[in-house]
Design brief:
Elements: E1 9-14, H1 22-29, E2 35-38, E3 47-51, E4 54-58, E5 71-74, E6 79-80, H2 82-94, E7 102-105, E8 109-110, H3 113-132, H4 136-139, H5 153-162, H6 175-197, H7 205-219, E9 223-224, H8 226-235, E10 240-243, H9 270-274, E11 281-289, E12 292-294, H10 307-315, E13 328-330, E14 332-333, H11 334-344, E15 348-352, E16 362-371, E17 374-376, H12 383-386, E18 390-397, H13 414-427, E19 431-435, E20 443-445
């Protein structure tokens, strides 16, 4: 029997609330791996990539697609909006990017129009409930809009758990199975919407079946059993790069519940999301912004509401890749980051967007959370607790010089290096990469084991 390479795989995960720059890290590392594998989430996630000054945005397609000849795999743990995937493929091809290496798991679940409709309806009902209670419960972290992208992700995962009406990518190639599942799903969803909104039947089973069949025909050559595909690659000595969507603090189990996404966003989700045992992981790179952002509702202890937040947002282009929504901004929370690093078994940190902090006289990092009972350095992920946490800051000297031209550790100003080293100590994990701009070239390798030339 051919034995797999010893721990030959790498995971790239976000350690905050998303949008940390995971796509850039995956793009950097893809060259030294044989396949890039997405294992969770859906079209609610977005990664921005800049290569030679040209910007790309991907949502479902793995970030490694920009490397010709690399296998790009959408694993079974992803929920796939087939129409959006086709649009994304067509958009990439129009820009000269080959998608021949793209493979989608036949076990990945499909996001249907009724999932999106339910997502939007639930958000509106939660908004109305919060208004009835004058926002008191929402402020306590118990009620109000979750802040979803309304892309149907949560209802699709719920259908996956309910099983009977869930459509998987492989079903798109089985007309009889597809017709039966969509027919039942439309009956249930039409009844739900009649009860909640009073409207007549909203979903036409025959029309939806034809639509999904057409998507299946477009994607048929890309749909296969990726569990065997990936395990065969590992057995043959191949190296896989696992790409997480969303981020640790949005994990459905370990994040700031209930203001989270609907999937396992951490490295813990790789096994169930791909069928590849996590014992093959040799390193887990945690991606962290030099500050903190969040999109949607839910508590964020270090959030700022002043000119500092505006400056960070403008310099960092902090607007959602998927939604365009302005992101909430604040100082880096080392308490939360240390917790995330622990959950993921993080072996190295990629500190992103350090250049955004250039020009500040002083910088702050949250090193503790204050509650009525005192200060703790342990993160409490439940939103009811986190909503009343007050940040305890340590202040560091800022650096005035722009650093986007820095290409080595010694090119950085002394105070910029000091900030990186402080983050490293506060989190307890070495910083392997420092990003000073969006382009591939604007990346400094700090560790000799980081695997990418500086």
């Amino acid at each position: 029997m051919v034995r797999p390479s010893d721990k030959a795989c790498t995971a790239v995960v976000g350690l905050q609330w998303g949008d940390e720059g995971k796509g850039k890290v995956v793009d950097l590392l893809a060259a030294e791996h044989d396949a890039v594998v997405r294992y969770n989430g859906g079209a609610n996630a977005g990664h921005s990539l800049v290569v030679n000054g040209e910007r790309f945005a991907v949502h479902l397609v793995p970030s490694g697609i920009l490397y010709n000849g690399k296998l790009s795999v959408i694993g079974n743990g992803v929920v796939v909006d087939a129409g959006k995937l086709i649009e994304e493929i067509d958009g990439l091809r129009e820009r000269g990017i080959s998608c021949e290496g793209l493979v989608v798991s036949d076990r990945a679940h499909v996001v249907m129009p009724y999932h999106k409709a339910e997502d939007a309806l639930r958000e509106e009902l939660l908004k109305e409930a919060a208004e009835v209670h004058s926002g008191a419960l929402e402020r306590a972290g118990n009620l109000g809009e979750i802040g979803t992208t309304r892309r149907g992700i949560g209802p699709a995962y719920a259908d996956k758990a309910r099983r009977a009406t869930a459509v998987r990518m492989g079903d798109m190639l089985r007309p009889d199975v597809l017709r039966e599942k969509i027919g039942l799903a439309c009956r249930i969803n039409n009844a739900l919407f009649r009860e909640l909104t009073g409207e007549a039947d909203r979903f036409d089973a025959a029309e939806l079946t034809d639509q999904v069949r057409a998507h299946g025909e477009r994607l048929a050559d890309s749909i296969e059993d990726t569990t065997y595909l990936l395990n065969d690659r590992v057995a043959d000595g191949g190296r896989l790069l696992f790409e997480g969507a969303n981020a640790t603090l949005l994990d459905v189990d370990h994040g700031t519940y209930p203001f989270v996404t609907s999937s396992s966003t951490t490295a813990l989700g790789i096994g169930p999301g791909t069928g590849v045992p996590e014992t093959h992981l040799g390193r887990v790179l945690g991606v962290v912004k030099a500050y903190q952002t969040r999109v949607g509702a839910g508590p964020m202890p270090t959030e700022l509401f002043d000119g500092v937040a505006d400056r960070i947002r403008d310099r960092g282009r902090e607007f959602g890749t998927t939604t365009g929504r302005p992101r909430r901004c604040g100082w880096l929370d080392a308490v939360a980051t240390r917790y995330s690093a622990m959950i993921n078994g993080t072996t190295g940190i990629c500190l992103m967007l350090l250049d955004v902090l250039a020009g500040f006289d002083e910088l702050k990092v949250c090193v503790g959370h204050r509650y009525a009972a005192g200060v703790t350095d342990r993160f409490r992920p439940d939103s009811s607790d986190l909503a009343v946490a007050e940040p305890v800051y340590e202040t560091l000297p800022g650096f005035g010089d722009e650093i986007t031209e820095a290409r080595s550790w010694d090119d950085l100003p002394e105070n910029a290096r000091g900030y990186v080293e402080f983050v490293e100590r506060a989190v307890g994990v070495p910083v392997d990469f420092v990003s000073v701009g969006p382009d591939r070239a604007q990346t400094i390798r700090r560790s000799q084991h980081a695997g990418v030339a500086s």
